Amino acid sequence: MESKARRERAWVSAKVEVQPHDGGQALKAVAAIAGGERLIALAHVFVDLPSKYTIQIDEHRHQAGTGEADDFMNHACDPNAAIDFVALEVIALRPIAAGELITFDYNICEWDMRAPFACVCGSPRCLGEIRGFRYLTQEQRARIEPWLSPFLRRRLAAERGREAG
Ligand SMILES: [Zn+2]
């Protein structure tokens, strides 16, 4: 069983490493990873305001940039990892080969991103400008619904409630 104790620092699988990538650094697989495998357990360090490195947990609660592996996960529109927001863990969505970047869709947690950017993930379903869940169409929202954070689920339910009423 996972301890509920506060994690001061991230736990990182030995199968992933922060490596030089495209003029910066990015998290990559250094061994074959199975679907469902736990890759990172995020540090329980939170801030009120978003930045380029935070992960939104609630309206005014963001998992902080701590300089650890999770800060170096790139966005992809067809990603190979997602976040378990209850356990605060990064989980592989499918088998990942050594050398692949570890990616997740930033829109599963960010409502309105502090640092929007143009995505070049190359997926046929690439969204282009990544700005946060707020800016997605209904169809784009529905596609990522299984992986949404509890915070975005609540927002989506509230919006649908308004539409229905
Ligand atoms: Zn993309």
The low-pLDDT segments are none
Helix content range: 10-25%
Q: Give the N-terminus to C-terminus distance in angstroms.
A: 42 Å
Largest sheet: 4 strands, antiparallel
Overall outline: globular
CATH level-4 homologous superfamily: SET domain
The strand order across the widest sheet is 1-4-10-9
Number of strands: 13
SSE pattern: EEEEEEEEEEEEEHH
Ligands in the model, by name, code or SMILES, are: zinc ion
Mean pLDDT: 94
From the 3D structure, determine the CATH topology: Beta-clip-like
Structural class per helix/strand content? alpha+beta
Rg result: 16 Å
Number of helices, counting only DSSP H or I runs of 4 residues or more: 2
Q: DSSP strand (E) fraction?
A: 25-35%
Quickly name the level 1 CATH class. Answer: Mainly Beta
Task: Tell me the quaternary state.
Answer: single chain
* CATH-scheme architecture: Beta Complex
Count of structural domains: 1
